[in-house]
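Handoff note, outgoing to incoming analyst
You'll be picking up this chain. Sequence as last confirmed:
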Amino acid sequence: MITAVLFIAFAIITVLGMPIALALVGGGMAAIVAGDVMPLYTTVQKMFSSIDSFTLAAIPFFMLAGSLMSSGGISRRLIKFANAAVGWMPGGLGVVTVFACMLFGCLCGSPTATVAAIGAVMVPALVEGGYGDKFALTCIAAAGMLGTIIPPSTVMITYSSATGVSVGALFMAGIVPGITLGLMMMVVCVIYGIKKKIPRTKFNLRELGEASYHAIGAIFMPIIILGGIYTGIFTPTESAAVACFYGLIVGCFVYREINFKGLIETVRGAASSSGMIMFIVACAGVFGLMMTREQIPAHAAEFIMSICSSKYTFLLLVNVLLLIVGCFMDTTPAILIIAPILFPALSTYGIDPVHFGIIMLLNMCIGMITPPLGINLYVASTLRKAKVADLVNRHLAKFMICCLLNLFLITYIPQICMWLPNLMG
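Most recent structure output, in case you need it:
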């Protein structure tokens, strides 16, 4: 009965249009009251203990670091560097858009911020270059998800907090899948440029050198973060704090594009975004408390093992489930709810928790460009005041095929994402 109340209350509150965080805590509180299993004030204690984590402290730090770098003229310099490096290729501006999103993802870790920052510059350039509104908006919406896959990623930190998996291992495991997906998207842009016979620019070594010089402050940031973690100089949370300090120095003193007023606005925006994520994590703690007490993860694992004879069948069903969930639920609450349920079954099938984390991440990223939620589609549509329905087109289907192919490869060839974490020990 308690389990039924937990999920029914969650579903009702969600359907009524309340924020997902309130649905999580509301479902948990309804189950506590219905079962009279513990004092109601336990919910407050659990909310606090859920975010009282050194690992989760990395989320606000990385959010602030990304905001500092995006406010400090970084996106414009990265685009100039990307244009000089790959703009000479067929479909050059499309390739530049994808490459710039990959670079910006190393700094920001937020898909919507990546779409907004890179799209503000690249979408008008793509339209002016003859790519058309639909391709331009679809391209930036799809490429924006690379900001979640390529580390540092706040979603990876959320998965780590829910399962206890190493953040550093997740960061390293996300590098190759992110680059692979980015290359696939670039191929789509190249084919489009060849088909449409879009004029190409010539490669200029001098321009590349100048652009590299101006962008070097941004390019060094991921090197500092990942290098510091894997040389043992600092932990992932400490690396996030270092990234903040580095972003402040670069934005305020190197590029000198952030004044005091701009700094206040940047901190306020990062605090708002971080607060939203942390509140969801806190509320999910109450929901998770009741799931654990009712042994829902253990029962779910037993049920899965009764219908799945092999790990390949298990992974197929998991992918189908996560693709459906990603269409209707935001990434953070989806991971906080589903990861603890599926996690106990991993050891039975011999699946590495890091590998499974990347699978979950890739599925949730596909949800970012899949209606009806498709958050990246909504953000991209605002760049040209277009309808979201206009972005659901054949171009989106091509990028979606890239995502599904990448997901299939990562799911059934785990060495693609695991060789780097294994190499680093």
